[in-house]
Amino acid sequence: VTTVDIAGVGLHxxxxxxxxxxxxxxxxxxxxxxxxxxxxRGGFQAAxxxxxxxxxxxxxxxxxxxGMTGMPIVDVxxxxxxxxxxxxxxxAAIRGGQYDTVVVFGVEKMPxxxxxxxxxxxxxxxxxxxxxxxxxxxxxQRLMHVSGVTKDHLATVVVKNRRHGxxxxxxxxxAEVEAADVLNSRLVCEPLHLWMLCSPNEGAAAVVLxxxxxxxxxxxxxxxxxxxxxxxxxxxxxxVLSESTPLAGLADDDTPSATTxxxxxxxxxxxxxxxxxxxxxxxxxxxARELLSYEELGLCSPGEAxxxxxxxxxxxxxxxxxxxxxxxxxxGEPLGASALGQVVELxxxxxxxxxxxxxxxxxxxxxxxxxxxxxxxVVILRH
Amino acid sequence: VGAELxxxxxxxxxxxxxxxPPGYKGEVPFGFGVVELPExxxxxxxxxxxxxxxxxxxxxxxxxxxxxxxxxDRLVVTYAFAPTVDTGGAAAAPxxxxxxxxxxxx
Lengths: 383, 106
Description:
- Chain A is an alpha/beta fold.
- Chain A contains 12 helices and 12 strands.
- The longest helix of chain A has 17 residues, at 335-351.
- The radius of gyration of chain A is 19 Å and the shape is globular.
- Chain A starts with a strand and ends with a strand.
- Chain B has a 5-stranded mixed barrel.
- The A-B interface holds A 114-117, 120, 122-123, 125-135, 137-138, 141-142, 144-145, 150-152, 155, 180, 183-184, 186-193, 240-241, 246-252 and B 13-26, 30, 32-34, 36, 40-46, 52, 57, 68, 70, 76, 78, 96, 98-106.
């Protein structure tokens, strides 16, 4: 069985960078990943680039600036999960024997404020229906109704992730916040306040994937980090608050979400379950989305997300730390770079290189992204 | 294939949009929510009530048309849902609503 290893990772930190192009950021991340992997020109046979706002030939521009073209370069758009989609395609190509080494990267430079998406028709924008945070708010309200989640819990998610983010030099926001300040920040869409929502921003992340080799008899070679699963799923029709953002849906609460579909496939592909996980990076576009992810990823039973949070289980030092990087709430969300940014964080966690935010002894890690499409990505890494 | 749906239903989820989303020229805040129709369909749309604490779960809502500015010389007509009866304010609203507004929680 062919396996896929992570040979190197690189990042351009997430934030706002006047005068820095999306190509510049991609170059920095790809160069760092290639250096770690000890791969140079001619050392990889394909490249996949995740981006949603980059425009025509985004990946070609990055690799062109590095003078490393000639191989197939494929741009991949899958909303918030674009990087996970790129990783899935690259991993499958290696497992299928098509390539030995593939560069996967994600780049983005987002406008400020509520994301303008070509997903919506002009009439929907004119009617005020392109109000992305309002859809998040409706989902948050339903979670509060069925799961006993309160606004205080939403604030606690923000406090937790911002506390983690203090120790991440690549994050956009690095100051701790208090629950009262979260609840006093501007109301965007009840129950969501400004600080409960992540900021669309800028950044890049890169990963070099390599066909796995047996290193068991080679003590001189460092332990490998393996891609145990890389899955992308879309939504099933039905749920009105699906990330597919329909205008109508069925009165049916039993259809599994895109996230649940992706997680189920990923656990099967990896031969692992939620109980095997040591650390998780999940989609915290808004504070309620993180709690919903606990349930949809099977980290807790339905209705127990708030309890899991309150018990400190998902804080660093807890049973299963979630978003030790600070999450999107601290890092911001550059769509195309987001999923691979999670992978970079988890590789650092698995290598024991995460400094003050290290989850000690982490061996198995899961990354989760979900957004418009719907697209849900779940990646499981194993050391 | 077509099917006629009810023009009235019950409120299933709601919020208010407090700043103009992309491409929107109308007033803010405006109400935004999901109404469940008796045929088993949930429909997303604007609500005529922009104060979340004036709405309650499962309250009767009905379809109306609203006119909004699009460009200087153009208007857009779209659908919205309006409360069917005046709830008289939500101070006494029963059940787990969306909670108090900004900063009011303990």
